[in-house]
Design a protein that fits this description.
Strand order of the largest sheet: 1-4
Shape: globular
Radius of gyration: 16 Å
Number of strands: 4
Structural class: mainly alpha
Number of helices: 8
Order of helices and strands: HHHHHHHHEEEE
Largest sheet: 2 strands, antiparallel
Strand content: 5-15%
Helix content: 40-55%
Length: about 170
């Protein structure tokens, strides 16, 4: 299975953050998603095993977990990118720290893709996403055919009995 970096035709950096995660017992993308589910990303819970003893936020912050889900070393898994988009809107996320980690771990291209979708389609988080974009290296938004479309970051209930339900960005539940 190709890595995310191979899918995006970029180099694969070696991540110090991934070494930290492995020391904490998070050895694959499924374990990272399971930790995100434990932290409120319940949209990705079906069919996933829970972690017996998940690391605390003090041990591994939500910013770090978000970036871990976006690493180029990971096998290409759109669910990990979508889960990162949901976790990024956690109230525990500091956009300044998230941007700094993205630059350090070479995930800014994927994070910028998510952030641009957030500015356009997350009215409750526009300020957060714009703050994040402002802190990432400036580059023209690019078409990313191998990354999930913005519709994969939102809930689109559509028509219901009382009318049309609004589209909402997926955010972690407490």
């Amino acid at each position: 299975m190709p890595t995310l970096a191979e899918t995006l035709a970029t180099t694969t950096p070696v991540s110090a953050l991934l070494r930290k995660a492995r020391k904490l017992g998070l050895h694959d993308v499924d374990a990272l998603i399971a930790l995100a589910v434990a932290r409120g990303c319940s949209h990705y819970a079906p069919g996933r095993d829970s972690l017996p003893q998940p690391p605390t936020r003090q041990t591994l912050g939500d910013e770090e977990l978000t970036i871990l889900l976006l690493l180029g070393e990971n096998p290409y898994d759109p669910a990990a990118i979508r889960c990162a988009a949901q976790l990024a809107r956690s109230p525990h996320i500091d956009p300044k720290r998230l941007a700094r980690l993205a630059i350090m771990e070479k995930t800014e291209r994927v994070l910028a893709h998510i952030a641009h979708a957030g500015v356009a389609h997350d009215p409750d988080g526009t300020e957060f996403w714009q703050n994040l974009i402002d802190r990432l290296p400036s580059a023209a938004p690019r078409r990313e055919p191998n990354l999930p479309h913005w519709t994969r970051f939102v809930s689109m209930p559509g028509r219901q009995r009382g009318g049309t339900a609004p589209t909402r960005w997926l955010v972690p539940r407490p």
